Structure formats: structure tokens, C-alpha cells
Amino acid sequence: MAFNNLTLREQGWFLWYVQQAATEGKERARAFIERYGENGFKTFLSLEHDRESGGKILDIGEKLSPVLAEEIFEKYGELVEAAMNAGEYLSKKFPRGDGEDSRALETNVADQLLRRGKDLLVQIATMAGEEKNGEAIKNRLSRMKKDVVLFASAFKIYAQPGRVDFDKISGVEIATEQSEDLDGNEIEEMRSIFAANRSGEDFTRQFLAAQLKKFDKIVESAGRKFYMLKNDGRIVSFARFDERDDGKLYFGFFNTESEVRGHGIGGAFMQAILEREARDKDVVLDVRVDNPAAKSYERDFGFKIEKTFVDGKNGATYYRMTRPPGRRASALAA
Q: Any bridge partners for residue 323, and if so which?
């Protein structure tokens, strides 16, 4: 292993761990580095945000297959690389305000990325002891794309003052297509996001299958207007509007890539498309009463609960919510 490929910070945190570890911990760390080399070494930078994570890193290396563990450490390394290049990315991607401290922005974005990397290691360490979690770990890694996470972290800093103009962000666009004009890549990307948001312990396979069937049916039907927020050609959020017979618009399929949720992107996108579509029309949506988004729709986007009803197919209780024309969003939501 070439130490000159490692930063002083990376070397320093590994040495700190070894110095304070008991004899058993020192031996585990030595065996770990022999097996995983530079990628494994770099993960100890996560101690900068959690000094208890050293043992968790070793657990990942010991409890998971070496192939899967190597994929995890490579993914962490990608986030570290993105953090180190945050300044260059910001200067190319986002407009700067007058008098803005570019160094402070760069530091904030880099810190967010390193925290995301640490959180990834900690989460996987809690899953590493059970073989059944292997597929869930692989799915998590596949969705955590470096460019997507970097965009989300930078956007969160950029949007903090409440200024969001997608047209001024390099490589970002709000695309509009009728359902019959969507291409195969757009459908597949939206379907993947849709499925990921309905997978996991909170959802049954039967529920996911039924929802995907509904998604496919709607996409295949003509006359549905889709909005897609794209970053460098990749969809990160989408929604649709349907014209109703009563002149109102139905708002549905609002989904945001799981790895960018919590960064203000979905809320800024929803605000932008509501302002485009709903200046002179009522907008209607249905949302489950146990969905946290229901409160956000009411608090942040001007929707009001019209009634409560039970879906005859799945037995779930929903709110029917309506937003009058011209109602501006009051804040950014996740």
C-alpha cells in the first residue's frame, strides 16, 4: 500500500484509532488493512465525525463477504473524493452571490458529504451481522451515486437563503412531456425511483407489485402531463398533472430520488411546477393520512384538507386535499 496516495487526515485518523485501541483492536486493524488496503484505510476518516466508528468499520470488513465489503469501502472513497473536489464542483455548477464566502460554502458541502459517508458506514455496520441484509445493502449502494449525492449536498447549501432558480444551475432542467412522448430511459428512471420509494420493511412485496402495476398503467395511458427534474440528464424528482372533467388539475406521482430527500430539492421542484401549472386552477391530490408529506402539503404548499376517505382496494385512509389558484408555497420542503 502506498501511503503517498493517502492524505494526512486519512493517515492521522487511522493512526489515532490504532494508538487508542486495545491489543485486540490493533490486531483487527492490522488484518483489516492487509485485506482491504487503501480503500479500507480511507474509511477511518469517518472517525472525524464519529470516533466510535472504528470498530464498526472493522465489523463490516469481518462480517460481510470481502467482495461486498470492498464495494462499501469503494463507495465511501467516492464520497471522500467528491468532498475533496467540492470547491471545483460548486464553482461550475451553482451561481455565486455577491460577497458570498466561497470557501465557507465549499467547507459546508464537503462536511455534508463526509457525514453522509459516515452515516452509510454506521448504517451498514448495524446490518452486517445478518446474511439476509446483503441484498438490502447492495440496493443501498446502487442508489448512492456520487454525482447525485454531491448535487444534493451542494443544493442544500445553495438553497438555504431561500433562493432557487433551477435555470441558473448548470446541467439542471425541468423537462415536461406528455405520457405518450416519454422515452424508455425516462420511464425506467421514474419507475426505479417510484419502486425504491415503496420498498423496504414498511411495504410488502404485494403492495409494491400493485403500485408498479398502477404506475405502468398510467404511464401507458395518453394525456398525462409529466414534469421531470433532471440533473445532468438524470431524473432526480418527478410528478404528473391530469386534467379533470371539472376543470381542476389532479397532482400525483410526486416522487424524489431517495438519496436526495431531505435536501430541499423535492420541495423546490414542487414549488416550481405548481407555479407553472396552478396559477388559475384548483389542484387536487390524494395522500395517505399516515404519510408525513400530508402536513407539508398543507403547511408549505397551500393545500387544505377537503375530506377523508377509505380506498376500497387497499383499505387505507386518505386525505383529499385541494389548493386554490395562485397559492404560493411558503417554504421549501424536503
A: 283
Q: How far is CA 28 from the centre of its chain?
A: 33
Neighbouring C-beta atoms of residue 18, cutoff 10 Å: 15
Nearest to 144 by CA among 234, 257, 38, 268: 257
Could you tell me the three cell numbers for 58?
A: 472493522
For the chain, which residues make up each domain, given as ranges?
A: 3-158, 167-323
Mean pLDDT across 91-107:
79
What grid cell was written down for 109? Answer: 458541502
> What are the cell numbers at 85?
473536489
Buried b / exposed e across 251-271, counting CB within 10 Å, b at 16+? bbbbbbbbbbbebbbbbbbbb
Tens digit of pLDDT for each residue in 198-233?
A: 887 677 888 889 889 999 999 999 999 999 999 999
Pick 167-323's CATH classification: 3.40.30.10, 1.10.230.10, 3.40.630.30, 3.40.50.2000. Answer: 3.40.630.30
Q: Are strands 283-288 and 317-323 parallel, antiparallel or unpaired?
A: antiparallel
E strand segments, 78-207: 172-178
